[in-house]
């Protein structure tokens, strides 16, 4: 990254107040600013840092009024937070402008690779694989037979995509994720052992999905495990066979969704949540961390919390009573003694 304040302002539809020619070559937090760095100020609690920051330029809202003298260049925009996020995306895209095919690797002759693709060293690409334009496959990735990866997808180092899976455009998959491993399907037999149920389906990931490091999405027993458009999955999440996750749902780390459950669109699910199998979770549901869901959630927009989930307000009222249990126990013990002594 190397831009002038004027160039940054043009990218963000902003205006410069100060030195428009100052060169900016890195992004920093306002409290960690240094020469030639660019920061932003969106939260008033950080206002004091602006007056002492060493950053060469700071992005602020158009309506920001300084209370003291400022020694840095300001770039005024409509929304400082959103503009800085946009700038981060621009920088990220610049960092991803790798192209070409590194050696050594294995690419089967039947596979098709689109324009401006990047294939890192030690990648394996199986038979009849289709890679779209601007696909980035970082080193040590495994792409199984008949996999389709559409335009503008990025797979970071160590991602494994099993056979017959489909990844739609503008999807990012972080290191160590496994897409399409067998679902956990076993049937007990008379010998107290388990017979494996073949998992012959696949995984379909729709467009604009982001999948965190070491997350696992299992292939369907039959049909498809489906992650719909815009879903964001954190690190270390388990999505079992035949699960379906609706559009724009976000799920935090260490959550597990058991087989054949359907999670609705626009849900927000906290960390370490457990969702039992063959359940349905309605749209717009919010689930607090460490919650266990053991029954269908039918009400749209429900907010849930608790080891066995129930309405969040009921849970919080119950928790107040729970905290008072030691006092109540003492009172009951005292009353018992009084009754015995009468």
What is the CATH T-level topology of the largest domain?
Answer: UDP N-Acetylglucosamine Acyltransferase, domain 1
Uncertain residue segments: none
Considering DSSP H and I runs of 4 or more, what fraction of the residues is helical? 10-25%
Number of strands: 40
Silhouette? flat
Number of helices: 4
Q: Termini separation (Å)?
A: 84 Å
Strand content: 25-35%
Identify the quaternary structure here.
single chain
What average pLDDT do the residues reach?
94
The order of strands across the largest sheet is: 8-11-14-17-20-25-28-31-34-37-39-40
What's the structural domain tally? 2
CATH superfamily of the largest domain: Hexapeptide repeat proteins
CATH level-two architecture of the largest domain: 3 Solenoid
Give a short account of the largest sheet.
Answer: 12 strands, mixed
Structural class: alpha/beta
CATH class of the largest domain: Mainly Beta
Rg computed from alpha carbons, rounded to a whole number of angstroms: 26 Å
């Amino acid at each position: 990254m190397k831009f002038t304040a004027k160039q940054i302002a043009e990218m963000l539809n902003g205006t410069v107040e100060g030195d428009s020619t100052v060169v900016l070559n890195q992004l920093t937090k306002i409290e960690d600013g240094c020469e030639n760095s660019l920061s932003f100020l969106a939260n008033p609690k950080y206002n004091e840092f602006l007056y002492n920051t060493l950053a060469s330029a700071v992005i602020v809202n158009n309506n920001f009024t300084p209370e003291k003298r400022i020694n840095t260049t300001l770039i005024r925009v409509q929304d400082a937070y959103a503009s800085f996020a946009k700038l981060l995306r621009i920088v990220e895209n610049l960092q991803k402008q790798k192209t070409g095919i590194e050696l050594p690797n294995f690419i089967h002759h039947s596979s098709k690779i689109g324009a401006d693709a990047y294939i890192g060293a030690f990648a394996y690409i199986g038979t009849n694989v289709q890679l779209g334009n601007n696909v980035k496959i970082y080193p040590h990735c495994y792409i199984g037979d008949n996999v389709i990866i559409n335009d503008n997808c990025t797979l970071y180092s160590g991602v494994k995509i099993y056979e017959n899976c489909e990844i739609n455009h503008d999807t990012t998959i972080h290191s160590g994720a496994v897409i399409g491993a067998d679902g956990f399907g076993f049937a007990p037999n008379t010998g107290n052992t388990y017979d494996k149920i073949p998992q012959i389906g696949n995984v379909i990931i729709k467009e604009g999905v982001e999948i965190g490091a070491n997350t696992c999405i299992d292939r369907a027993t039959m049909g498809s495990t489906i992650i719909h458009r815009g879903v964001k999955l954190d690190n270390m999440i388990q999505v079992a066979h035949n699960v379906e996750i609706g559009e724009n749902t976000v799920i935090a780390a260490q959550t597990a969704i058991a087989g054949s459950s359907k999670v609705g669109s626009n849900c927000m699910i906290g960390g370490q949540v457990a969702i039992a199998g063959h359940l349905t979770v309605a749209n717009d549901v919010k689930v607090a961390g460490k919650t266990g869901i053991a029954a269908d959630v039918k009400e749209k927009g429900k907010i849930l919390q608790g080891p066995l989930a129930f309405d969040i307000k009921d849970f919080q009222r119950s928790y107040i009573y729970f905290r008072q249990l030691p006092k109540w126990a003492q009172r009951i013990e005292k009353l018992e003694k009084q009754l015995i002594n009468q």
